[in-house]
Amino acid sequence: MQVLAGPILRRMTTERLTFWLITNTPVSASLELLQNQEQILALQQTQVADFHSQLKAGDNLYVHLLDIKLEHTLPTNTIIHYDLRLNGLDWTHWAKNLVYPGHALPFFVLQPKINNLLHGSCRKPHHPSKDGLLRVDELLENTPPLEWPSLLMMSGDQIYCDDVAAPMLWAIHQLVPSFNMPNESLPCVEIDNSQALHQDNAYYYARETLLPANEANRGMLAQVFGGVRKPVFTTDTAQNHLISLGEVLAMYVLVWSPAGWESLLEKNGWGMPSGLTEKQKTDYLQRQAILQNFVEGLPKVRRALAHLPVAMIFDDHDITDDWNLTAAWEQTAYNHPFSARIIGNALFGYLICQGWGNCPEHFSPQLINEVQHVLARPGGEEHDDFLRTLFGFSQWNYTWQTTPPLVVLDTRTQRWRSERSLESPSGLMDWEALTDLQQQLKGLGAVIMVSPAPIFGVKLIETIQRLFTWFGHPLMVDAENWMAHRGSAHTLMNMFRHKKTPKHFVILSGDVHYSFVYDIQLRGSNRGPDLWQITSSGIKNEFPKRLLDIFDRTNRWLYSPKSPLNWFTRRRRMKVIPHKPETADHGERLLNASGVSLVRFHSDGSPQAVIQLCSDGRDIKFILSEEDATWE
């Protein structure tokens, strides 16, 4: 038996424990919990079986969720060791270096009162920075467990289905055959099944050519595959976009655990596909060197995720770039069978590898049974029917009943489509979703709200996005900020100003590949709630350094408190006070460094301190900069 990924702790409460993992064989599990070396819970295999969902994706690929409901409440703020045995074997038989020094078993600490937490987004394996999740492991190893963060919030782009390095795709194709998954038929002219795609002709650097370049397909090619060149921000490449369900599941195995890498590298070593151009070979070797460093850190990543509860939500790259950005994008992408399958397979992978563990009760036994039926016979009409069901699924959002509550928003699938133009950006949440959110927030004293995209952005960048949108090119600049859609922006601001709204709003966000902190005060007849937006991005990704420096300094110059331009562009009746990085030079307010954010809270739910734990080893605190406050 081999554990290919996990165990990862998901939602962990005093009354319910959730573990996720992937194995290469079916397993029966038992669980023992110990406090101060004394047993406080013992569940035998027959007892755990009632809470154990096991999905067979291949003869040698099984995805597991253990969602264990407890009869007796567990203690909080104490170390609870867990002995999770699979087929009677403890962790020493299926995971190396899973425990921290001084401990014989992995453990967790239940802290429903959030005194501090970690959060971040955007973890691209082939980005040249170090992996920010290594700082999570370092923090846990060097911090007394009773002072650990309550949880790790991963707020989007945990994997990149649309931006895959060629050596990562090569590794995926070495791993997939070992799963022995059923062959998935594909609605594609050139490659009509997954085995041919994985083994015969993988189309490295050329997956955008898999559809005929006719007028009907041109829009889909540009939006899903095209490697669309974005002249202001970045150049995104989709030439190695994941396509099959097997590729998506293999990606999850390879980004969260060293086990898959160990088996394939021991067997094959690092290889290179034939037929690459000299330019492609150079790129391949450069990416391979970066991935080698990434793989070396995976044992520590797996260890951290086995000790700290992890909450997750998708953003676009978990599925594909600019996912659902405009109504025109949706019409083009979902109305072609091949692009719908590509998007659907990525969402399918998110369901069983991320979404399921956030809030298991959102996924009915009937839905999970449908998942198993598709896994057994992928590629047919039943597969496509189920993907259409997922496209309409409305419970990706969830709340963890911590103090303050952790409210995680779905800003991708419940969009408010523009009534002015199909090409205009959609609102990140529609009116019904925002109304439901307002009802959920009524009466709360404080809330930690997770929005993958920042609600309050950098004014210069938002202005550029509006200009490109006005000219009909929102996709070119990722124009998906909250304020790009008048209806959703107005509704959201009214929600913040509602008299029964929480007194303290802490908004966690990511997406943009740089980090910043705002303290926001709303104006009106009565002062609104206190808002803080803490943006941490990316875990392993960064904005082009020179370009961000230009944006940062120009933004401060154009929209400074004394700037006439700032006076004439006020629109939201609010005061924005930036917190600048303590290492910032004059004029800098944005931090461009891979890592994760550590947020410490006061007892009332307001933030006490925000520290970026950078992957290069620096700890950078954000400091209130009252002199740079602007009214908008």
TrEMBL record:
Transmembrane segments: none
InterPro entries per record: Metallo-depent_PP-like (IPR029052), PhoD-like_MPP (IPR018946), PhoD-like_sf (IPR038607)
Native organism taxonomy: Bacteria, Pseudomonadati, Pseudomonadota, Gammaproteobacteria, Oceanospirillales
Species this chain originates from: Marinomonas rhodophyticola
PANTHER family with a match to the protein in the record: METALLOPHOSPHATASE BINDING DOMAIN PROTEIN, PHOD-LIKE PHOSPHATASE METALLOPHOSPHATASE DOMAIN-CONTAINING PROTEIN
Protein name stated in the entry: Alkaline phosphatase family protein
